[in-house]
Structure formats: C-alpha cells, structure tokens
Amino acid sequence: MTDFAIKVEELSKRYRIGAKKRRDKSFASAAANALSYPLHNLQRLRELTSFGEHRQNGRAASDIIWALKDVSFEVKQGEALGVIGRNGSGKSTLLKVLSRITEPTEGRVLVRGSVASLLEVGTGFHPELTGRDNVYLNGAILGMTKRDIDRRFDEIVAFSGVEQFIDTPVKRYSSGMKVRLAFAVAAHVEPDILIIDEVLAVGDAEFQEKCLGKMESVTGEGRTVVFVSHDLDAVQRFCSRVLLLADGAVACDDAPSKAVAKYMETSQAMRRYSRYDADGNSTPSEEGIQVVRARVTSGGEFRPEGVPSGSPLEFEVTCLVPKQIQLPDFAIGIDTLTGHRVARFFSGTGNLNGAAGRVGPGEFTYRCVVPDLKLVPDDYLVTLNAMRHGASLAKVEHALTIKVLDRQFSKRAGVRDGVVRADETWEIPGGLPVLARQGQRD
Amino acid sequence: MIVPSRGWHFIDWQELWRYRDLFYFLVMRGMKVRYAQSVLGVGWAVVQPVFTMVIFTVVFGTVAKVSSDGAPYAVFSYVALVPWTYFSNALTDASGSLVKNSNLISKVYFPRLIMPLSGVAGKLIDFAIAMTLVAGLMVWYRITPTPWVGVTPFLVFLVILTAAGMGSLLAALAVQYRDVNYGIGFAVQMLMFASPVVYPVSLLPERLRLVYALNPMSGVIEGFRAAYLGTQPMPWDMLAVGAGSALAIAVLGVTYFRRMERNFSDVA
Hints:
The complex is a heterodimer.
Chain A: E1 4-16, H1 27-35, H2 37-47, E2 64-76, E3 80-85, H3 91-98, E4 106-111, E5 115-118, H4 131-141, H5 146-160, H6 175-187, E6 193-197, H7 205-220, E7 224-228, H8 232-238, E8 241-246, E9 249-254, H9 256-267, E10 275-277, E11 290-297, E12 307-308, E13 313-321, E14 325-326, E15 329-336, E16 341-346, H10 348-351, E17 358-359, E18 362-370, E19 378-388, E20 391-405
Parallel strand pairs in A: 3-7, 3-8, 5-6, 6-7, 12-20
Antiparallel strand pairs in A: 1-2, 1-4, 8-9, 10-11, 11-13, 13-18, 14-17, 15-16, 15-19, 19-20
Helix pairs in contact in A: 4-5, 4-6, 5-6
Chain B: H1 13-18, H2 20-35, H3 44-63, H4 73-100, H5 102-105, H6 114-140, H7 152-176, H8 179-193, H9 209-212, H10 216-228, H11 236-260, H12 264-267
Helix pairs in contact in B: 2-6, 3-4, 3-6, 4-6, 4-7, 4-8, 4-10, 6-7, 7-10, 7-11, 10-11
C-alpha cells in the first residue's frame, strides 16, 4: 500500500509545431495563393487545436510532436523528486500538466492534496502596483486566500528583506529585490505538493541557498516537492529520488546519483572504467607526445567494481613519444560527475623521485601513488594531462572513472554530502554538565 | 484527478467561488493600474461619456437634428452613453483579457473564466461613477425621474450578461485567431449604430421593433431613457426579447469558452 501524493499513468502530450510553408513554383500559383491566403490561414489556425487522424492534401502529420509519451511514475508523500533531462526532454511539459496549466492528450494523473507551482518567479507581478499589492496578487494567483495572506504578510515581507520599499511600485525595485519578494511569497504558500521549475536559475548565491533551505524545510514538514533543475549538484543534494526524462519518455527513475550518472553518460562520448586505451584518435601535440594507456589500481589490484573510500590509489599513465624530448610534467585531475574539480596531483619538476632529463623515443610510464584520498562515495572522473611550463601537451578529459564506495558497506548511499570526508572524532570535553534540577514546565 | 477533458461543460461554480479572492485582486489590479500616476484618476471614468455626449449633441442633435423624443439631446444621449460605454469597454476588456494575460495563463492554474469576468466586473466601477453625472444633468435640465429608475439594476444585469457572454466568446476566439483583437474596436463602433444610442427607437418602423430588440442593448438603452427621462413608456416588449437574447448569448459564449479552455495555454 503506497501512500502516493502524485501518481502518473501513461501520460502523453501532443503539440502541433509551426507548419512548413509551401513554396510557390510559378507566379500564377503565387497569385492564386495570395488570394486564398485567408482561407489557408483559417485552416491552419483551426488546426492548432485539432489533431485529426486523417491527413489533408497529403500533408503528413510532420508538425505534430509528442512532448510526453507514456510517462508513468509515482511520488510518495513527503518525497522530494528531482526531474532532470536535456532541454526539450519534456520536463516543463510534465510540470505544466501536473500544475493543470495544460491538459494531457492521453493518460491520467492522480493528485492528492493542494498543488502550488513555481514555474516562474514573480508571475503576475505588475510593475505599476506596489510591493504590498503585488504580494496579495501573487499570493492569490498561487492559491492563497486573502485571509492567508493577511496572516502571513509580515513574515513574507521579513523573509524578502524589502520592508522599506513595500509601498513603492515594483517597477522601482532592482531585479534582485523583485526576485526575493516573489520567492518570499511563493515560499509561504504552504501547499501539500510544491512544484518548482528551475527557479534557482535566477538570483545570487545567497538567494539560491535561501531557496534550497526553504525547500528542505518544506520536505521536513512532510510535504512533497517536485523539483526540475539543471543544477545537478542541487538535485543530488536535495532530492531523494530523481527522474530522468529523454525525448518525452522516462529514461531513469532511481536514486539521484544513478540518474545523474545516466544523464552524464548519455551526454558524454566515452565512458571508460579504470582502464584507458587511446584508440588512435588522440592527436599528438607538436612535441609528439601522446597518452596511450592509463589505469587505476588500488593496492596493486584492478578494482572496476569500486574501491572503499580512503583506499590507496595507484595511477599508471603510459605515454608515447616519437622522438627524444625533455621529460614533461604530468597532472592528474579528479572531478565529480558534474565537472567540479576535487583534487589535482601534479608531478612537477622535483617531484619525480629524481627522474629528469630527456626521454624517448618510445613509451614510458608515470606512476602516481595517492595513499589515502578520502572522497565521499560516488563516481569520479579522471583527467590526464601532460604539460610543460603550465601549457598542456597532451590531454585526455575524463579518461577514467573511479567508483568510490562506502567504507563499511559495498553499496553506495544515494545522496552525496560534499566531496571529501575525514576520520574525525567527536567528544564533549569535561563530560555532560549535570543539571541541578529539571526545569518545571506547566 | 487530471484527465484529458472531453465534451462540453458549463460553469464550475464551486471552483469560481474558491478563486473569488483572485477575482477580487484582478479587478483591483485593473483599477489601480489604470489610475496609477494619473492626475485625473477616477475622473477619467466620466470623461469618455461626457466628451462623446458633447460631440454627439453637436453633430447629431444640433446639426443633423435627429429626433430625441422630446428630451434635450444632451441628456438623451448621455443617458444612453453611460450604459453603452460600460458595455463597449467591458466587452473590449474581456475579449482581450486572455491574450493580454497570456503570461499568467501559461504559468499558473486558475479557472480561466475569471479573466473575461474580471474585465466585465472592473468596468462596473466606471459605470457607477459615470451614473452620478446623470443625476447632475437631470437637475440641470430640470427633469424628474420616473419611478422606473428602480429597474436600473435589472437593466445593468442584462448588460453584464451580454458583455460576459460575448466577452467570453470573443476572448476564446481571440486566443486562436488574433483577428478578433484587431477587429474588436471597430466592431464595437459599428455595433453602436445598431443600438439606439444616437437615435431613438421611435425613428424605426414599427414592424422592425422586435427584431431590433434582439440586440439586448436596444432594450436596455431605451429602458434607461424611459426610466430617467420619461419620454417613452418602459419598453417591456423589447426588454423581454432582449433578456432572452442576452441569456442565450451568455450561455453560448460561456459554453464555447469552456470548450476551448483546455487549449488556451497551448495556443496563447
């Protein structure tokens, strides 16, 4: 028995996109078309809302697209669902259907509870009205009653930080103020289900933190959140489950790190695990150096299934030089799946155990040993870069993948908290203070 | 439960009631925005009918010498202009409401019928302000109103019905066919001549009277004149026909709107 908040069953949505214009081959037909122009327009406009199965005049239904096709999933109460996908994958359409802004073509959606959608910050804000008026208008648009707004008005204004200007027309506000006020209203709506679409894309870092904080407290209160974003880190941090949409269908409905991994996978050409082989498609630099092989081992063993966090890592990178050159520096970069750099190991002159001077022609291998890299369990990408004087000679982005596992368990947690961990200890110096007596409360 | 809707629906009264606060705020917004940073402010509600009256009095009353059933032409036309101005403004506002607010329609859910209805309701305030001048004019011309002035609310109700019905129909059409927007101003002007604003019904042949009454505004305007000026008896026959046609327009317009409602956000 699932207590779902939202249940989507085989949802499909069809749109008619701009029709192609017919080219006129002769002047006569151009003239004739000019006269029947209103008729064609009428037909075209009428078709905007009809989707006849029959094809007229041999015109194929090439201008119909299915923004969503047979999408099914469930969202439990109190869950935070993230929705990710490329532009055009159907995310916004899905939100529009969930918010009842547009109707499904097929399928159905069952919703339990009140829904408030933030598809855009400041919907309905009118520049001529004061901040106060706009709070009421925006609140009503989002579904609050006048009484609700009266009750929460002071809270909203305090949250936004624009008390001083609350009675001036909004057209005099800076864009930051507008966004803060709009979000303050939205944050206080208190629906059972909150739907948010890339709202965090606007606003400065402080504002984004505030937004995420508020969203976290919303789920803390047992409310459901559906969150669409391109910010994969935010999605991973905040959501307990992620839906990946591709071309209008569900590609993945799983733990955040898995869905994000699948998303990155489809968007990057190569995925290599722990072993890299240049298959002739890396172009050698002018010095002629090429990275031909690389691998990662842990404790001498090859571990494609993953290594526990804190295990030693050995990187072996083999390079090929066709002629004799000065030994280059080498850099190994470790990045998260979302492209953030977490560590960099640089050979540099003087680090290489005395090896220096000229090298080649032929192959030679760098070996880098990292005794205890304490990464949080997740997948990480390894970039290899042969350099000289800070300039890159041969670089392979994300050549390898390292799976870092939890130290105690072999399966990974779904949510990644940060990128590093440590072996910290906790204590209360001096022991627990002894209370004289328990305070009596009535 | 969200399903593709099929078929025809009428008004979901419960839902409209639930969104009454939004309705109220939209009407307020319409008012405040119009008079923000304006010197005359609400005075503008009077300017439109007054100036029109002056021009009509000069052109139709004095120059063309159109009959005005015995009353001074100025009052004759003003008493007609007040409800007519309300009707034409409400209609224009309502039909453009969806297109103008397409950003709201594509981002938020609310019963779309609120949009044209708030246009119709908003202009009522202007109507009320313009009506106050009627009292002033009647004092000036020393005309006593008949007891039929009590019928005014009923007449206003007929105008609301017609404006709401036509406004909804046109609003739904305007979303898909922008021609409606461009043509509405001019169509309303033509419609004015199909109503007894500048001339009295008495100028028309008797047999055409009831056909003419199919235009609900005919009965309403003659009703206003009968009530306030007493130049003719209360035209109950015209009002009956007009009421029937107002009701029909309202039902048809709203039903069409509701049928097309599901496509608004896709087409706007």
